[in-house]
Write a structure and sequence with these properties.
InterPro entries: Aldolase_TIM (IPR013785), DUS-like_FMN-bd (IPR035587), DUS_fam (IPR001269), DusA (IPR004653), tRNA_hU_synthase_CS (IPR018517). This protein is α/β, with parallel strands linked by helices. Helices cover about 40% and strands about 15% of the residues.
Length: about 350
């Protein structure tokens, strides 16, 4: 049982010598997930992998410009980190892309994959697949004002427009007219009506071969795949055909996946051995600093509850945090008590 608790957490000296702002960092990434990949989540994930590309949640330019909260806030330790924007307003996208570059973000990503009704009403997300020239204009507007990469996350199709030709034409136009050379493709089509956002992540069938073919037809483009990928063994299979793999909920629900990424996918050497309890305790300085700012402990620990999956005591750990981390006086002692419930 002790063996499963020990993981390899890479340090910065890697054989691959992954550098900031290189497309090699697209090799493995964590998907932008609404109400999940906030700055606390990303800080925690970075404790497990130094090279995984992390994404913000999808953020509207209007929120960045007008909300009281600082939607661009992040910690320097999160690099490499990409900002995902959701909009079809070229001027707003360009403004926020430039602002993000000035704030130090490594990449900008345009969401052309979310099928929710709210997003459609805002005229962005997956519905934009039907307007490739508009997407190209959005990408170009951002590329014209920033020097960091601008990428597009999309689906393989929408509604009945789900032929390979439809996908090929979309990518061709956005690449040629917009100058986009980096696409992350969720290997499912999106139904714009009739299905919920959750159903759109599960019901439309996966078609990995279509994404493979896209890479064969666009050899000069960086093509990454997303959708239904559960572990690093599956990721390695996809990397035989594509430039990158993006995993979402599988990694969020079981963060242990991230612990092996640097060694398995980035060929990192000079690793140090840390157990999972040490990883939790390495979060304490960050947590204590956040608590002094008024952050609720539960807003941080909610991203950590899956860390001990399949280890004796994991359910007690998760239950204790869920029950106690949101109390007004919750502090590090809550985590220490929760850790005592893990059987080592």
């Amino acid at each position: 049982m002790n063996d499963i608790l020990h993981i390899s957490v890479s340090v910065y000296s890697c054989v691959s010598n992954v550098m900031k702002n290189t497309f090699y960092s697209q090799r493995f990434s964590i998907a932008p997930m609404l109400k999940r990949t906030d700055r606390h989540c990303r800080y925690f994930f970075r404790k497990l992998s130094k090279n995984t590309l992390l994404y913000t949640e999808m953020i509207s330019p209007n929120a960045i410009m007008h909300a009281k909260n600082d939607y661009l806030a992040y910690n320097d330790e999160e690099h490499p980190v990409a900002l995902q924007l959701g909009s079809s307003n070229t001027a707003l996208l360009a403004y926020c892309a430039k602002l993000a570059e000035l704030r130090g973000y490594d990449q900008i990503n345009l969401n052309v994959g979310c099928p929710s009704q709210r997003v459609q009403k805002g005229h962005f997300g997956a519905s934009l697949m039907g307007e490739p020239m508009l997407v190209a204009d959005c990408v170009k507007a951002m590329r014209d004002v920033v020097s960091i990469p601008v990428t597009v996350k999309t689906r393989i199709g929408i509604d009945d427009s789900d032929s390979y030709k439809f996908l090929y034409d979309f990518v061709s136009i956005v690449a040629e007219k917009g100058g986009c050379d980096n696409f992350i493709v969720h290997a499912r089509k999106a139904w714009l009506s009739g299905f919920s956002t959750k159903e759109n992540r599960e019901i439309p069938p996966l078609d990995y071969s279509r994404v493979y073919k896209l890479k064969r037809d666009f050899l000069k483009l960086t093509i990454s795949i997303n959708g239904g990928i559960r572990n690093l063994d599956e990721a390695k299979v996809h990397l035989q055909y594509l430039d990158g793999v993006m995993i979402g909920r599988a990694a969020y629900q079981n963060p242990y996946i991230l612990a092996e990424v640097d060694r398995v996918l980035f060929n990192c050497s000079n690793t140090v051995q840390l157990d999972l309890i040490t990883i939790v305790r390495s979060m304490y300085p960050y947590i204590e600093a956040e608590l002094t700012k008024g952050t609720c402990l539960g807003h941080i620990t909610r991203h950590m509850t899956g860390l001990f999956q399949k280890i004796p005591g994991s359910r007690k750990w998760k239950h204790y945090l869920n029950e106690n981390a949101y109390k007004p006086d919750a502090d590090i002692e809550v985590l220490e008590k929760a850790l005592s419930l893990i059987s080592i």
